[in-house]
Amino acid sequence: MPDRYDSCVVRPLESRGSTVRIPVIAGNWKMNTTIREATGLVSEMLPSLDRIENIEKVVCPPFISLGAVKKLISGTSIKLGAQNVYFEEKGAYTGEISPVMLSDLCEFVIIGHSERRQYFNETGEIINRKIRAALRVGLKPILCVGEKLEENESGRTEEVVTAQLDSSLAGVDYDRDSIIAYEPVWAIGTGRAATGKQANETIGFIRSKIEKLYGGEIARSMRILYGGSVTASNIAEFVQQPEIDGALVGGASLKAVEFVSMVKQTSQIKVG
Ligand code: PGA
User: Could you tell me the pTM of the whole model?
Assistant: First the structure.
């Protein structure tokens, strides 16, 4: 196989017919931390985090802290992600950050977070363009999907998630390195997480959708995370589920001890 396959983060290990996916815990710091606070937070978690193996640990600070955090984590097992990206390569787009600029700094980029859909009017078409642009320069998207409370209550979760996946991934050659995060909007920042069972069901549904779009091998090896009020106290409930490969964590990722604990618990449950 070509080099590209060899350098994949996820190596599907066929064991007794099942595929082992390397778990991921990603911290979405949102619009929190100054540069000084960001480097302080990373320095605090780094020694413990670096020692935890067989799990991907990703921090996503604000754009302005990416450079400083990158310096701190260089040579460690901690990985860096951005929280957003624009789809044009360069030019007169005041205030925007292009995929090329990010590709020097980070490995991952969160795309289509519900806060961007809600406050910045990001549509499926915009998200689709961002994903294409990110993949073109080798950035690995963490694509977020999830339904609103009223959609959940009216039993439309699968319909909404399907529409989001269809529009975000239209014509996109998504691959096993890309990540999807299922984040029900009603669970984000509310303290009201989904149950492990609910999240597992929807993530299983997303995996079946990915199988239809990209085939069984990619569906079995793609990491799909849960996000929405995940903390050190409830993470076990999610990562015990067979379809859930880790978590995208907001608020609780801003506390070093809690983030390390979530990574440790996930590693113990998933890797043993
Ligand atoms: P939360 O955010 O963990 O604070 O609910 C999750 C997210 O928005 O990714």
Answer: 0.93
Any catalytic annotation for residue 150? no
Lowest mean pLDDT among 4-18, 85-99, 155-169: 4-18
DSSP strand pairing (24-28 vs 18-20):
unpaired
Strands (E), 164-240: 179-182, 223-227
Q: Which residues pair with 58 in a beta bridge?
A: 26, 79
Quickly state the pLDDT bin for 18 (edges 50, 70, 90): low
- Give the contacts of 83 (CB within 8 A, at least 6 positions apart): 28, 29, 30, 60, 62, 63, 109, 110, 113
Handedness of CA 152, 156, 159, 163 (dihedral sign): negative
Residues within a 6 A CB radius of ligand 1? 28, 183, 188-189, 227-230, 248-252
